């Protein structure tokens, strides 16, 4: 990894009808993300927040869809922002905001990788596959659609411009999945996305599938983005998310993933999505996320001295 980190806040919460993710970046700042990473020896700077201007709604034949114009504006804004920022070289840590942010970040990263002659890979840590289309979503919540968008699915044609550099489905690995509707399941099975649901994690643990994916990234000389949705974690340890699903990844499994990723030296960018501080319990989710990000950047078990609770 590079020795400098750029924190970028992307406070958005139009991806669902529940408010609160707007406060995500500030909760991570309050949980001392910057100091924790600085202590690990990085030069950390905070770029502040990226916001989009409210625009008029774009209408879609699916009447459930809401905030489509905000989604389109967010994708455009992040794409533009990343274009300049990525040239400067620090490892970006995007602090969401709901998971719509991934729809703007990944295509920009993929374009930068393409220009550098490298493949862009994505590790998607989430309870959901976020593989809805504009037609298939029955909630109309766009935070369930970013993966469909970033692979260049034609269902967005005529609504939001297709990504110039889509992510190849075979370059995506998903872990922690445990809530997928039948249509989404059928669609994802037709792609070459590598999906490890919680059943697979129960049987084989997190290390084996993760190492296999990391080997693929290394062999391809790829760049690796890690997208961490708070609902990847079990709600008992991470209650601050609007889409809790029981039976998630536990504390040590989550840290082990981050530690293995750090050891790989392949992670080039990160996003943290769906943190809703309004639903937190005395900041415990924000603190856990910051702790996990510290592990991703090199904090080791032996370096930590935890207070008893
Ligand atoms: Mn998600």
* Unreliably modeled segments: none
CATH architecture verdict: 3-Layer(aba) Sandwich
CATH class reads Alpha Beta
Biggest sheet, spatial arrangement of strands: 2-1-3-8-7-4-5-6
| SSE string | EHHEHEHEHEHEHHEHEH
Compute the separation of the termini in Å: 33 Å
Q: Under CATH, the topology is which?
A: Arginase, Chain A
Oligomeric status: single chain
Number of strands: 8
Strand composition percent: 15-25%
Bound molecules: manganese (II) ion
Overall structural domain count: 1
The major beta sheet can be summarized as: 8 strands, parallel
Helix/strand class: alpha/beta
**Nearest-angstrom radius of gyration?**
18 Å
Provide a count of the helices: 10
- Percentage of residues in helical conformation: 25-40%
Q: How would you describe the shape? A: globular
* CATH homologous superfamily identity: Ureohydrolase domain
Provide keyphrases for this structure:
309 residues, alpha/beta, Arginase, Chain A, eight-stranded parallel sheet, 10 helices, binds manganese (II) ion
Describe this protein's structure.
With 309 residues, the protein is of the alpha/beta class. The chain has one domain: Ureohydrolase domain (Arginase, Chain A, 3-Layer(aba) Sandwich). The chain contains 10 helices and 8 strands. It has helices at residues 24-30, 33-39, 68-88, 101-115, 146-150, 182-189, 198-204, 207-219, 251-264, 284-296, and strands spanning 4-10, 43-49, 91-96, 120-125, 172-177, 194-197, 223-229, 267-273. α3 (68-88) runs parallel beside α4 (101-115), α8 runs parallel beside α9 (251-264) and α9 packs parallel to α10. The longest helix is centred in the N-terminal third of the chain and has 21 residues, at 68-88. The structure holds manganese (II) ion (MN). Manganese (II) ion (MN) is lined by residues 99, 126, 128, 130, 229, 273-274.
